[in-house]
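Lecture notes, continued. The same structure-token format from the folding unit now serves as the input rather than the output. Read the line below as a description of shape only.
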């Protein structure tokens, strides 16, 4: 009986010490840090222009294999101003939709692209907003990195009508006499 009680106490103590080790390990996990830099190739456009937004990974720290495995977020743009052209996103890209990109990317690489076209007779403003941005290195034990919302205001430039050269025009002066009071 003493051996049984001693064995049970020993197993309980070992379990308690092992739990302490597991909790200590969880406290030492390091949070993933990354910046998703989004740039537009144009900020001033005319009708028919395409604007390309590129997503680049910057300031990557504490990532498994020094890479990002996925990003996600939400894109919103004025659909009276822009029309969707193409993207390298795995899913999404239309205004108001969530998007995600699932591929391995290293720091400094262009990770994804989104191309929008300025509509003919575009109305309103060319605001494009990226929100709810997150990145993951694929290791579920690590936290997900996120960035603040990123906004762009793409200005539509009005093209003045072309100047037309006028030649061979003859202008003759005319004289008109008015008599007042008669």
């Amino acid at each position: 009986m003493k051996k049984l009680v001693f064995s049970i106490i020993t197993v309980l103590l070992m379990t308690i010490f092992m739990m302490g080790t597991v909790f200590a390990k969880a406290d030492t996990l390091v949070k993933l840090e990354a910046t998703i830099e989004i740039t537009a190739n144009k900020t001033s456009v005319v009708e028919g222009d395409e604007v390309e937004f590129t997503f680049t990974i910057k300031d990557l720290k504490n990532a498994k294999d020094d890479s990002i495995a996925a990003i996600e977020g939400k894109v919103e743009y004025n659909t009276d101003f822009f029309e969707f052209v193409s993207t390298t996103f795995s899913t999404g890209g239309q205004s108001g939709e969530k998007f995600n990109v699932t591929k391995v990317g290293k720091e400094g690489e262009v990770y994804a692209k989104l191309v929008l076209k300025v509509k003919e007779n575009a109305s309103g403003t060319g605001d494009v907003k990226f929100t709810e941005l997150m990145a993951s290195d694929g290791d579920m034990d690590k936290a997900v990195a996120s960035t603040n919302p990123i906004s762009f205001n793409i200005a539509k430039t009005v093209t003045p009508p072309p100047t037309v050269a006028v030649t061979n025009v003859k202008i003759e002066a005319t004289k008109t006499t008015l008599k007042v009071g008669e």
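Point for the exam: The radius of gyration is 32 Å.
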